[in-house]
Amino acid sequence: MSKTESRWQVPLADVVLGSEEIEAVAQVLKSGWLSMGPKTEEFEQRFAQFFGSKHAVAVANGTAALHLACEASGLKEGDEVLCPALSFVATANAILYTGARPVFIDITGPQNLNLSVADAAAKVTDSTRAIMVVHYGGYPCDMDGVRALAAKYGLKIIEDCAHAPGAVFHSPTGPRMVGTMGDVGCFSFFANKNLTTGEGGMVITDNDQLAESMRILRSHGMTTLTWDRHRGHSFSYDVVSRGYNYRLDEMRAALGMVQLRKVEAGNTKRREIILTYREKLKNLQFIEIPFLAAPEGSAHHLFPVLLQDGVRRADFMATLAGQGIQTSIHYPPIHRFSSYLSLLPLDHRLPVTEDVCSREVTLPLFPHMSEDQLWRVVQAVKNFS
């Protein structure tokens, strides 16, 4: 098996690719067809089947997935989209690409880092057209509340599922997989994700019109693809809309199919590690552990902790780094980035988000994390003073 090289004794995230992944990619290289083709089609079919979704559209990355979802949903200049500021910047950037404006929503609280449905409801205006939810760390948002809000105001729901492949939301009406409860679900296959192809992404939907629009938009607005013409299904094409080069290649599709078979087992291992973390760190007075009361069903992409007042985050992270343990921050709040300040009122505040973002540290988490690595992190945290 190949293992990611790292100077860290315990990296923040790590990927181990086995013989199945290597052979799958090797077969594509031997085939001589590298751009989007039969493997991508097969990956889309298997992904849709896994989620119980009617359509899956493979794309170049998670940001492309979000952008296509926004554009196919008809977002345009003058529209507003509700979204959290506690996310990677791609969430909001994808909205800006269409000319629409992100309206940032506060999170629920230190124990639930997902967006507050109550704050979202308070910020709906006549210009609001959609709500983009982020299932932070793999923990599902309150999708019952989101769906009720969307139904009340006629809003599109775009799910940013970059952290949450395989996560399940438990509703009184029954369990539903994350990504299938809105109009569109968007996934990232970046190198640190639960399902990785290095780069890559996927969009799922049950809406035939949205799916067709995204398929055309991902490849320059063309009505047929190179693979179609190679098979003799067409000899020319039309360009029916402004499109993009957001295609996924065959190597990543082949890799993704192998990774898809492993995602549930990987999520289970992540859960086991998080349960150990929680048990070993529960009595420490200087940290708070979010999502302790969250229902089952998380994909457990991240393990965030919140430092209590008086604990310097830089000192905490430096102490762990000195012991070979990598940590990170998820995330600096989007609404405080320089490029976003000019888009917002000077007094724009998200008090809960800002408090949490100032105290959050992400500890290492990956499925093949060894007992020794987990013990090293636990002891380093316990010994911090």
Characterization of the model:
This protein has 13 helices and 16 strands. The longest helix is centred in the last third of the chain and has 32 residues, at 250-281. Helix 1 packs antiparallel against helix 9, helix 2 packs parallel to helix 9 and helix 9 packs across helix 13 (371-383). With 385 residues, the chain is of the alpha/beta class. It has helices at 19-31, 38-51, 62-72, 90-97, 117-122, 143-153, 208-217, 226-230, 250-281, 313-321, 338-341, 351-359, 371-383, and strands at residues 2-3, 16-17, 55-59, 80-84, 101-105, 107-109, 112-115, 128-134, 156-160, 168-171, 174-177, 184-188, 201-205, 287-288, 303-307, 360-363.
Q: Can you summarize this structure?
A:
By secondary structure, the protein is of the alpha/beta class.
Which tags fit this structure?
single chain, 385 residues, alpha/beta, seven-stranded mixed β-sheet, three-stranded antiparallel β-sheet, 13 helices
Structural class: alpha/beta
Order of helices and strands: EEHHEHEHEEEHEHEEEEEHHHEEHHHEH
Distance between the termini: 39 Å
Secondary structure tally: strands: 16
Strand order, largest beta sheet = 3-13-12-9-8-4-5
Strand content: 15-25%
The shape is globular
Q: How confident is the prediction overall: mean pLDDT? A: 94
pLDDT under 50 segments (min length 5)?
Answer: none
- Specify the helix fraction band: 25-40%
